[in-house]
Design a protein that fits this description.
The complex is a heterodimer of chains A (185) and B (225). Chain A is an alpha+beta fold. Chain A has six helices and six strands; from the N terminus they run αββββαβαααβα. Chain A has helices spanning 3-10, 46-54, 68-80, 92-103, 110-137, 150-174; strands at residues 14-19, 26-28, 31-33, 42-45, 58-61, 142-144. The two termini of chain A are 25 Å apart. Chain B has two domains: 2-165, Methane Monooxygenase Hydroxylase, Chain G, domain 1; 168-225, Ribosomal Protein L9, domain 1, CATH 3.40.5.60. The chains are: A alpha+beta (185), B mainly alpha (225). Chains A and B meet through helix 1, helix 2, strand 6 and helix 6 of A and helix 3, helix 4, helix 5, strand 1 and strand 4 of B.
Chain lengths: 185, 225
């Protein structure tokens, strides 16, 4: 899956905005939005929030977890634990990136948040590499991946699945009885 | 909904009208997203969801007709257009990934279609079936024209079923559990390992072989991610 497609899915998440215009309820196929009143916060999907922001029609309120202290706590916990800790949003990385790239003026301490989220991401990816390595070397057939987000899975997907397939083919070629289906490639 | 479909897949039209009553457009879009991701990540071609595709198309056309009547520069219209574009992207990505799989596994897809029993739900939509048949014929003609007719007479036929690799059902997939499943058998990787069972709890995520959980994907109990 392309990372941009994961971002596409992340854009479905809702975020609070403060509009500076007024508009009645919008009846979208995926649900109703609004009504919009200047100064009153309203929940909208991220794709709409970013569009309105780009047209300077709203202020974005960052999600609760996008705050220096909470992220610092998370980073420390993530470094302390050997397993993956629960993340505040299944799309934390994508949302941070989208909101910081397009609405950084509405988010206090944007640079600090960017660094913290990157730290958390790096720690988690390092753990993920370690567990992928032990998964392969111990030739496991099943793994539980709780608390992993789609973007994290997606970064190891192509490489991990291809190597597992290759190893499977190599192994089944060793056992002549099960080599069916691997001929004529 | 999936139960109604698997029980009575032969009568799609009837299901269709029932669904209109019980499903909100938002749920319909969620269904499309589910089908899209499953199709993207499963190694084999899944059952076609033509009723979902049709309903989504209907919604899109309906919305576009409405937008035609709105005057230019309406703030709401642009929001609606954006939503339509997003849904359309998902829809075409879904259909495209199905076509890619048909191109990749066409003899096997057609073979499965041929061997399915009367009344079983069809794997392909009528359009996809026509595409697969045409693709098969064209590939065969091409192979003949380019190489086969210059071969010795005893080598002039090619068995497509053997020439084109089968989908590898043993590949690993990532999945999220939507309905709790007990006692899923995990086969050992090597001879010196023992097989064992796992319980898939609702909301948990796993990495395992597609073959083990293939029925759960089509019943909608797990979602590939």
């Amino acid at each position: 899956m392309d990372p941009s497609e994961v971002e596409f899915l992340a854009e479905k998440e809702t975020v609070k905005i403060i509009p500076n215009f007024s508009l009645d309820k919008i009846f979208l196929i995926g649900g109703d939005l609004g009504p919009f009143n200047p100064g009153l916060p309203v929940d909208v999907p991220v794709w709409l929030a970013l569009n309105l922001k780009q047209r300077q029609k709203c202020r974005v309120i960052p999600p609760d977890w996008m705050e220096v202290e909470k992220l610092e706590e998370m980073r420390d916990l993530e470094r302390k634990e050997d397993t993956f800790t629960p993340v505040p949003s299944p799309y934390y990385m994508e949302l941070t990136k989208l909101l910081l790239n397009h609405a950084s003026d509405n988010i206090p301490k944007a640079d600090k948040i960017r660094t913290l989220v990157k730290d958390i991401w790096d720690t988690r990816i390092a753990k993920l590499r370690l567990s992928a390595d032990s998964f392969i070397s111990q030739q496991e057939a099943h793994a539980k991946l709780d608390n992993l987000t789609l973007m994290e899975i997606n970064t190891v997907r192509a490489f991990l699945l291809d190597s597992l397939n290759c190893m499977y083919k190599l192994r089944s070629n060793l056992q002549p009885s099960s080599s069916k289906g691997l001929i004529d490639y | 909904m999936s139960d109604a479909l698997s029980d009575d897949g032969s009568d799609i039209n009837q299901d269709d009208s029932q669904e209109d009553v019980i499903m909100t457009p938002a749920e319909l879009i969620a269904k499309l997203e589910e089908a899209w991701l499953n199709e993207k990540f499963s190694p084999e071609l899944l059952e076609n969801k033509s009723e979902v595709v049709e309903c989504v198309m209907e919604q899109l056309t309906h919305m576009e007709d409405n937008l035609q009547r709105v005057k230019k520069g309406d703030a709401k219209a642009s929001v609606h257009r954006m939503e339509i574009d997003r849904i359309r992207f998902m829809l075409s990505s879904y259909l495209r990934s199905r076509l890619q799989k048909i191109e990749k596994f066409f003899p096997h897809v057609l073979e499965r279609e041929k061997s399915r029993g009367e009344g079983d739900p069809s794997l392909l939509s009528p359009e996809e079936f026509a595409f697969a048949k045409e693709y098969y014929a064209n590939t065969e003609t091409y192979l003949k024209a380019v190489a086969l007719k210059r071969m010795p007479p005893n080598l002039q036929t090619v068995d497509m079923l053997k020439a084109v690799p089968e989908p590898c059902l043993d590949s690993f997939v990532f999945l999220r559990v939507k309905e709790r499943q007990d006692n899923i058998l995990v086969e050992p990787e090597t001879d010196d390992q023992r097989e064992y069972v796992v319980d898939l709890e609702e909301g948990s995520q796993h990495l395992m072989r597609y073959r083990t959980i293939a029925p759960l994907v089509s019943s909608g109990a797990v979602q590939l991610i």
